[in-house]
Amino acid sequence: MDNVFQRVYEITARIPYGRVTTYGQIARLLGNPRLSRIVGCALNRAPADLPCHRVVNRLGGLSDAFSPLGKESQRLLLEMEGVPFRLDGGVDLTACMWYGEEE
DNA sequence: AGTATGACATAGC
DNA sequence: AGCTATGCCATAC
């Protein structure tokens, strides 16, 4: 499918282990920086096998409606992958921000 | 076919 | 410095 959703899934699936990215960044990779909301909507309907826990907002904070598990689970998942967290509970984007294809 | 909504982002107050 | 309001594009109803 050429749907934007599918595109989002592809990009999200390409996020390296122990790395995170933002909705805006993904949207930028899609070609339209304004698609940030679409990215969120896509992840909302994303399949369970999608590592959506590696996607955070530009503040590095997790979404309020990440999944039924809650953002706390997401935080644990990221910590488990070696992603450093800040004191405010946000991800240290300065160290783990994924800027696109760098595999 | 039109309206409403959204896991964001940016600007203004 | 923190909160409110608006923009923006695609999907769902």
Give an overview of the whole structure:
32% of the residues are buried. The protein has helices at residues 4-13, 23-30, 36-44, 71-80, 93-96, and strands at 21-22, 55-56. The two termini are 24 Å apart. It has one domain (4-96): Winged helix-like DNA-binding domain superfamily/Winged helix DNA-binding domain (Arc Repressor Mutant, subunit A, Orthogonal Bundle), CATH 1.10.10. It has 103 residues and is mostly helical. The protein binds a DNA duplex (13 and 13 nucleotides) through residues 3-5, 22-24, 27, 32-46, 52, 55-58, 62-67, 71.
List keywords for this structure.
103 residues, mainly alpha, Arc Repressor Mutant, subunit A, two-stranded parallel sheet, 5 helices, 2 strands, 4% strand, DNA-binding
List the helices and strands and how they pair.
Blueprint: H1 4-13, E1 21-22, H2 23-30, H3 36-44, E2 55-56, H4 71-80, H5 93-96
Parallel strand pairs: 1-2
Helix pairs in contact: 1-2, 1-3, 2-3
The structure holds a DNA duplex (13 and 13 nucleotides).
